[in-house]
Amino acid sequence: MVKYTEPGLIEWLRRRARLPRDARLIAGIGDDCAIFRPRGSPSDLLFTTDMFLEGVHFTRPGAGPADLGYKALARGLSDIAAMGGTPTFCLLSLALASRVSRRWIEDFYRGLLDHGVPLLGGDLARADRIMADIVVAGTVPRGTALRRDGARAGDSIYVSGQLGASALGLATRRGRAWQIHKRPEPRLALGRFLREKLHATAAMDLSDGLSLDLQRLAAASGLRAEIVMPPVFPGASREHALHGGEDYELLFTLRPRTRVPRSFGGVALTRIGTMRKGIAGDVTLDGAPLPPLGYDHFRS
Q1: Which tens digit of pLDDT belongs to each residue from 129-171?
Q2: Sign of the C-alpha dihedral computed for residues 28, 252, 173 and 237 taken in this order
Q3: Phi-psi region of 245 (alpha: psi -120 to 50; beta: other; left: phi over 0)
Q4: Quick check: 34 and 47 in contact, CB under 8 A?
Q5: Are 141 and 42 in contact (CB under 8 A)?
Q6: Which of 64, 67, 90, 238 is most deeply packed, by most CB within 10 A?
Q7: Distance between CA atoms of 96 and 54, rounded to whole angstroms?
Q8: Can you give the three-state secondary structure of 93-111, one letter per residue?
């Protein structure tokens, strides 16, 4: 029986894979992107990688190949958005099952390229199922990347959009929720707005569910979080919104006196709570403990 969790493995690895004493390596394991600072550059470089596996992240029949290609890259672009960055290029390693046709492959790449991000290379292989490993590189002005560990006690907690749409879409496979599940929109412009105009103190994307991702942000910042129920997508349940995952909205913190618009680019920005001093990583919802029940690859 598996007796470990994804966060536990990541923390174990983070402690052992320590950054070398190189001033150019700003951040490694434990955030949405690694940060590298070229000597003399006005910009920091962002790097993220993400796997997209048949039977784990998607099934066939289901979404078409163009939607799968689009989503494979959207997942990585959401990490760049969470740090307030701009994507510059991507790499894709793609393993294909023998039953996959040439047309399917071409449609997959067309969907990936719909984002307008240059594809500079990658690898192709044969396997017993479809597996995509995407790498995305981006840039952010030197020293300005949004990270998970910057929140301070008293900061307000916000989310973008309505949560639970993707989980509802996966469960029902119909309507707008299904379209959102198949083609999530990385909040790239919003991430830059949070960095440039609102001066967010911390941020991350909501990929594994609010309950788990907020626990990660709070733990990284050494704080606890008090929240109320976030905005829920019409038709979705509380469980979808709190634990469902794959919303790819942004979770962020701001200084309490920050003037925040109700929306940005048609996406609602909603205050849901406050960061507090206390046990790092503790999260309460309406005063009661909120367990981190979002998606964990290794949870039984």
Answers
A1: 889 999 999 999 999 999 999 999 999 999 999 999 999 999 9
A2: positive
A3: left
A4: yes
A5: yes
A6: 90
A7: 10
A8: EEEECCCCCHHHHHHHHHH
